[in-house]
Specification:
- The structure is a single chain.
- With 204 residues, the protein is of the alpha/beta class.
- The chain has 2 domains: 49 residues, Helicase, Ruva Protein, domain 3 (Orthogonal Bundle); 147 residues, Dna Topoisomerase Vi A Subunit, Chain: A, domain 2, CATH 3.40.1360.
- The protein has 8 helices and 7 strands; from the N terminus they run αααββαβαβαβαβαβ.
- Helix 1 crosses helix 2.
- It is elongated.
- The N and C termini lie far apart (51 Å).
């Protein structure tokens, strides 16, 4: 594709690096930004720069936060004895949008996937083990996607934590096999959390 400007070409190339966006879509988005008030495009660029430089991850649960400790972990009204283990921040947002879960979270940062070169050491598993050892935890809820990688991760976590005197449960399979948590509707998520079932190694 021939571009009349190197600046335009550079902007299109960077936009096309985003997932699901090809060169034609990137060009359309860049031209759209050129045609709208410059203040809006500048505001977008400033927001993206702040995202890179200002975003933090909660030192406790590893979700995205504006501070060292996120609002959920700091909230005394949450039940911090119940930890819902999820893959990433999108799952926290999906469950929070239901308004039904009042416990705490632990964000793994992904799931074990040998095919993608992701092992236990690349996730926040040790941090979860430390929380269980140091805090008064009553229950761990495994809320990972019902995929092979998700089930493998849950199995690994259970093996790491099974000697702890806590309950283990997994969200009810109102979610279809292979479904990602973030795409589930709120009603399904509510039922999955409310009707969670005990987890045991024999179910793997």
């Amino acid at each position: 594709m021939n571009y009349p400007s190197k600046v335009l070409e550079k902007a299109v190339d960077e936009m096309a690096n985003l997932p699901g966006i090809g060169k034609r879509t990137a060009l359309r988005l860049v031209l759209h930004m050129l045609n709208r008030p410059s203040s809006q495009t500048v505001a977008l660029s400033e927001a993206l720069a702040q995202l890179v430089n200002g975003i933090q991850y909660c030192q406790h649960c590893h979700t995205i936060s504006d501070h060292e400790i996120c609002e959920i972990c700091e909230n005394p009204l949450r039940d911090h004895s119940i930890i819902c283990v999820v893959e990433d921040v999108r799952d926290v947002m999906a469950i929070e949008n239901t308004g039904q879960f009042k416990g705490a979270y632990h964000v793994l940062g992904g799931k074990i996937s040998p095919m993608e070169g992701i092992g236990p050491g690349q996730l926040t598993i040790q941090s979860l083990v430390d929380r269980v050892n140091k805090e008064q935890i009553k229950e761990i809820i495994f809320a990972l996607s019902s995929t092979m990688e998700g089930d493998t991760t849950v199995f690994y976590l259970y093996r790491q934590l099974k000697n702890s005197l806590i309950e283990f449960s997994t969200i009810a399979r109102g979610l279809g096999i292979g479904d990602e948590l973030e795409y589930a509707d709120e009603a399904t998520l509510v039922r999955s959390i409310q009707y969670r079932v005990p987890y045991s190694e024999s179910k793997f």
